[in-house]
């Protein structure tokens, strides 16, 4: 069993990005700029945005955060997005999810310029991804593909089972894995909450990618011996032995499943660092596209 070290792989990629950013800065006089919009004061969202700021600093990129109150109207939020759309100094933009219940998420996403949509959520970018045209891939699926590639996991010709059909992870993940791309070309089964015989289907997978959002749902009955397991879940559970009072767990029962696996991602330290790395890579891509 080999643990896939997402922290180390992310650090390696960010080092490569930092070298390229410095080269671009010396040639063009400025660096890529990522803007984040943070609505409200959700602690998890604040942490995510702070981590994105930190990652930008590590690779020499500029970052800015637009902090807006939870009571902001949808109209005012979209005006802020439109302002960033027209700001030539900003290359990439994200709107941190979740948003307050009075705001229609799809309307907000569709107001982002596809050229600055480094989360890869805009319908234009999703559509290009589906038909195989160059686009911004959603950051988490992009990060997972990099984890597999850099860990030496062969995807081509394998049976991949994706558990969870969200627009952020599961659905784009299933599409990317099936495309005629480097280290893709898999046969893919997409499962969800209404799938019958889920344990039996998962146990057929060469590569099992779990993004179901249920803490430690996947136990050993879901995993065949020699499989690769990618755990996208992240849950806080009470743990008196920790200084923080909680521990982080995934959607997979790591201690029970890991002895069966050839490769497995831990939680934390697996997929999480790669999601932010994918976002940074997309921002660099947006910057380079603007130069052209």
What is the name of the CATH superfamily of the largest domain? NAD(P)-binding Rossmann-like Domain
Total tally of structural domains:
2
Question: What's the rounded overall pLDDT mean?
Answer: 95
Describe the largest sheet.
Answer: 6 strands, parallel
The total count of strands amounts to 11
Map the helices and strands:
Elements: E1 2-3, H1 6-28, E2 33-39, H2 43-59, E3 62-68, H3 74-85, E4 92-95, H4 105-111, H5 123-131, H6 139-150, E5 159-163, H7 170-178, E6 187-191, H8 198-202, E7 207-210, E8 228-231, E9 235-238, E10 246-249, H9 254-257, E11 263-264, H10 271-291
Parallel strand pairs: 1-11, 2-3, 2-4, 5-6, 5-7, 7-8, 8-11
Antiparallel strand pairs: 9-10
Helix pairs in contact: 1-10, 2-10, 6-7, 6-10
Describe this protein's structure:
41% of the residues lie in helices and 16% in strands. It has 292 residues and is of the alpha/beta class. The protein has 2 domains: 28-113, Leucine Dehydrogenase, chain A, domain 1 (Rossmann fold); 139-271, 3-Layer(aba) Sandwich (Rossmann fold). Strands 1-11-8-7-5-6 form a 6-stranded parallel sheet. Strands 3-2-4 form a 3-stranded parallel sheet, with helices on both faces. A two-stranded antiparallel ribbon has the order 9-10. Strand 5 (159-163), helix 7 and strand 6 form a beta-alpha-beta unit. Helix 1 (6-28) runs parallel beside helix 10 (271-291), helix 2 (43-59) crosses helix 10 and helix 6 (139-150) crosses helix 10 (271-291). The radius of gyration is 19 Å and the shape is globular. It starts with a strand and ends with a helix.
């Amino acid at each position: 069993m080999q643990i896939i070290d997402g922290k180390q792989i992310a650090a390696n990629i960010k080092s490569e990005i930092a070298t390229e950013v410095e080269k671009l800065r010396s040639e063009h006089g400025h660096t890529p700029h990522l803007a984040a919009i943070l609505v409200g004061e959700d602690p998890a969202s604040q942490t995510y945005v702070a981590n994105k700021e930190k990652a930008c600093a590590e690779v020499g990129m500029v970052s800015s955060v637009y902090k807006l109150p939870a009571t902001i109207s949808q109209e005012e939020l979209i005006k802020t997005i439109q302002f960033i759309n027209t700001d030539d100094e900003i290359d990439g933009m994200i709107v941190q999810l979740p948003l307050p219940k009075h705001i229609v998420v799809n309307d907000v996403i569709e107001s982002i310029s596809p050229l600055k949509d480094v989360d890869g959520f805009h319908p234009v970018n999703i559509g290009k991804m589906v038909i195989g045209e160059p686009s911004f891939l959603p950051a988490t699926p992009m990060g997972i593909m990099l984890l597999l590639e850099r860990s030496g996991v062969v995807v081509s010709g394998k049976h991949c089972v994706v558990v969870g059909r969200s627009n952020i992870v599961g659905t784009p993940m299933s599409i990317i894995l099936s495309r005629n791309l480097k280290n893709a070309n898999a046969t893919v089964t997409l499962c969800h909450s209404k799938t019958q015989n889920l344990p039996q289907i998962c146990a057929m997978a060469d590569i099992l990618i779990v993004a179901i959002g249920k803490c430690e749902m996947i136990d050993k009955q879901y995993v065949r011996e020699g499989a690769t397991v990618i755990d996208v879940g992240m849950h806080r559970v009470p743990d008196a032995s920790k200084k923080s009072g909680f521990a982080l767990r995934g959607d997979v029962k790591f201690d029970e499943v890991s002895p069966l696996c050839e490769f497995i991602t831990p939680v934390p330290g697996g997929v999480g660092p790669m999601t932010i790395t994918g976002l940074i890579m997309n921002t660099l891509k947006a910057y380079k596209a603007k130069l052209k």
